[in-house]
Write a structure and sequence with these properties.
Elements (H helix, E strand, L loop, with lengths): L6 H8 L7 H18 L6 E5 L6 H9 L8 E7 L2 H11 L6 E6 L22 H4 L7 E6 L6 H4 L1 H11 L7 H12 E12 L9 H10 E8 L12 E8 L9 E8 L7 E4 L12 E5 L2 E11 L9 E3 L1 H12 L5 H4 L19 H8 L2
Parallel strand pairs: 1-2, 1-4, 2-3, 4-5, 6-8, 9-10
Antiparallel strand pairs: 5-7, 6-7, 8-11, 10-11, 11-12
Length: about 375
């Protein structure tokens, strides 16, 4: 018998809501603050935006991550459609000691007209009092865990509207629109701290987002968190930290990938409270956190010749292995036939079984 979802669970699923765990929020905030330290050249206020702030956990993490002398110079702005979540965010940051904190029960995307052929966006000014601040190019950092809502959940009409407004192609996800909308809010040199699904790294529908990020930002760090299970839902997250600057040059981005493994594997082994503690760019090997083993790989981002190519991790071990495979291969499938789609399956036991023979026996008359 299928379990019925509660009203809150239905709302969470329909709106793609996955609030950020505290440790993950702290890690992302540290990455954003490191970028701010690199760009900050004079003593001035810093404006931080979270366009889908939920209960304010990311903004609070920024407050905790900045040097204490910066705290009184922070101006925080958050948008969310959930009034109850915003009330909790206000309580969380009420005594934070920042210069200002403002939350608005509004749809951030409704403030954006979209992306035209010149790849520029204009924020609506029809009701400036509702927002209270000028948004375009005003923020030193945007930190966000935007909602993940795919085409089939959004509905065809809403998906078509988002695709038209934000120049999206293929299967539309709500976070694609959020990334494009967040871009214009950043001032030149501003820092983007994005926590989102890792699907865009490799799937065809992520090509437009890959192209956007590489053309509008200098990528600083990319972390594929794989199956680390930071979220209760089946979300495989990734972190993107980038500096807002239009560029056509090749990216030189640090890439860290971490996935759970069944055992210790080969050394080195790092014991740690959280696998996030070893994702500083200096470690490759196995880590053990709370009884679980993880394989951590560190290298550089390989983007390919165009956005259709999935993003991959490059380091000496991986590149050497790929070179050996290529040198010992007579040809590839692509050399003999056009590949339209790979084999698709899921972890569902309907598709992945180890008892097919027994199943056939049961089906015989």
């Amino acid at each position: 018998m299928a379990l019925r979802l509660t009203a809150d669970e239905e709302r969470t699923k329909a709106n793609g809501i996955h609030y950020t765990p505290r440790r993950l929020a702290a890690y992302l905030a540290d990455q954003v603050v490191n970028g701010l330290k690199d760009m900050r050249t004079k003593d001035r206020e810093l404006s931080i935006l979270d366009p889908a702030c939920g209960e304010g956990e990311l903004l609070q993490a920024v407050v905790e991550a900045v040097p204490s002398v910066w705290r009184c110079k922070l101006r925080l702005l958050g948008f969310d459609m959930d009034e109850a979540a915003l009330d909790r965010a206000r309580n969380l940051l009420a005594s934070s000691g920042v210069a200002s904190v403002d939350f608005h029960a509004d749809d951030f995307l409704s403030r954006v007209t979209g992306v035209g052929v010149s790849a520029q966006m204009e924020f609506l000014q029809s009701d400036p009092q509702a927002v209270g601040v000028q948004l375009e190019g005003q923020f030193d950092a945007v930190i966000s865990n935007p909602p993940y809502v795919r085409t089939q959940v959004l509905g065809s009409s809403a998906a078509r509207d988002l695709a038209a407004r934000f120049n999206l192609t293929g299967r539309v996800d709500l976070y694609h629109a959020f990334v494009k909308a967040m871009t214009l809010a950043l001032r030149e040199g501003g820092i983007l701290g994005l926590l989102t699904s890792n699907r865009f790294l490799s799937v065809q529908s992520g090509s437009s987002l890959r192209d956007w990020l590489t053309s509008q930002f200098r990528l600083r760090r990319l972390v594929d968190l794989g199956d680390t299970k930071f979220f209760a839902a089946a979300v495989l997250p990734a972190i993107v930290v980038a500096e807002r600057t239009a560029t056509t040059s090749a990216q030189n981005c640090e890439f860290i990938r971490v996935y759970e493994v069944p055992g210790m594997g080969s050394p080195p082994l790092r014991q740690t409270r959280s696998v996030l503690d070893v994702l500083d760019g200096s470690f490759t090997g196995h880590a053990r956190a709370n009884g679980t083993y993880f394989r951590v790989e560190t290298g550089r981002l390989r983007t390919g010749l165009d956005s259709r190519t999935p993003w991959a991790l490059s380091n000496a071990d991986i590149d050497g292995w790929l070179a050996r495979v290529k040198s010992n291969s007579a040809c590839t499938f692509a050399d003999v036939a056009k590949i339209c789609v790979g084999i698709k399956t899921t972890a569902d036991s309907v598709f992945v079984r180890d008892d097919w023979e027994a199943l056939q026996e049961r089906e015989r008359p």
